[in-house]
Amino acid sequence: MALSITLPTSGKVRNHWQSLYSILRELYGYDFNDYADASMTRRIVRYMELNKIRTSSELCDKLINKRMIIQDFVNDVTVNVTEMFRDPEFYISLQKNVIQSLNNLPYIRIWHPGCSSGEEVYSMAILLYENGMLENSMLYGTDINTEVLSKARKGIYPLRNMKEYTSNYIKTDAKYSFAEYYTASYDAAILRAFLKRRTVFSKHDLVTGVVPDEFNLIVCRNVLIYFNRDLQERVFKLFCDSLYLGGFLALGPRETLLLSDVNRRFELVDKKENIYKKIK
């Protein structure tokens, strides 16, 4: 028999989850208040269905009295969809408009907020390696989800994914063989150690976290679509403060800096691929 869960009407979503959001923030430091309502409702309900929880009150009680489940909850309700060289045309633009501009710097710092299990971070590492820039670079991947961060640090992915990743890589006009970057072991693909040496993965919450440092490039694609407008604006300001003058910001296809208050401090580098440069 399917589990019956009472859902709020469209106009009462925020009030329905308010007690849950308060518990997450006050007890655990996770602030989901400014995440998009519809997206959060889908993910919370999915978690409730998987764990046979019928009401939001029951979910709140479990989070209060069984604190060991908090990380499972956060891991389940955060979005972790990623792949290597996702959207190949983006990497072509990155190569043309950004990488060559960074090539003259003595040291390069790149931040991937919302990095999930790290595939896009390692894609960047490969791009830098092929341009002779990896040894002078450090790539930082951050996420709120500790489970995916653990996967990212290991750099081990299902071997079945390599066919799609190879196809993506080839579409970037690559001149090398993607197979050079991993070794196959049974059903796993293990990324080469030299790619991992230039990466650091750590927990960071874009909602409550402070500016982690200054970077030459921030790549945050398809993360802000899950935030409401107010939170997007706060994150844009965080990104602006986290970039060196002349640094670049890359967003996803459904995200835009053009409506932000910090837009005046950037120039648009590639409209189609949503890449910006900080000019003041």
Structure commentary:
With 280 residues, the chain is of the alpha/beta class. It contains 11 helices and 10 strands. It has helices spanning 13-16, 18-28, 37-50, 56-65, 70-77, 88-102, 119-130, 146-154, 162-170, 193-196, 229-242; strands at residues 108-113, 137-143, 156-158, 182-185, 188-191, 199-203, 215-220, 243-251, 266-270, 275-278. A 7-stranded mixed beta sheet has the order 6-2-1-7-8-10-9. Helix 11 links the parallel strand 7 (215-220) and strand 8. It is globular. The N and C termini lie far apart (59 Å).
Query: How would you write the strand order of the largest sheet?
Result: 6-2-1-7-8-10-9
Morphology: globular
State the order of secondary-structure elements, H for helix, E for strand: HHHHHHEHEHEHEEHEEHEEE
Mean pLDDT across all residues, rounded? 89
Strand portion: 15-25%
Assembly status: single chain
Number of strands: 10
Structural class: alpha/beta
CATH class bucket of the largest domain:
Alpha Beta
Report the helical percentage: 25-40%
Uncertain residue segments: none
**Alpha plus pi helix count:** 11
**Biggest sheet, open or closed, and with what strands and sense?**
7 strands, mixed
* Rg of Cα set: 20 Å
Q: Give me the CATH fold name of the largest domain.
A: Rossmann fold
Write the CATH homologous superfamily of the largest domain. Answer: Vaccinia Virus protein VP39
CATH architecture grouping of the largest domain: 3-Layer(aba) Sandwich
User: What number of domains?
Assistant: 2
Q: Report, as a whole number of angstroms, the end-to-end distance.
A: 59 Å
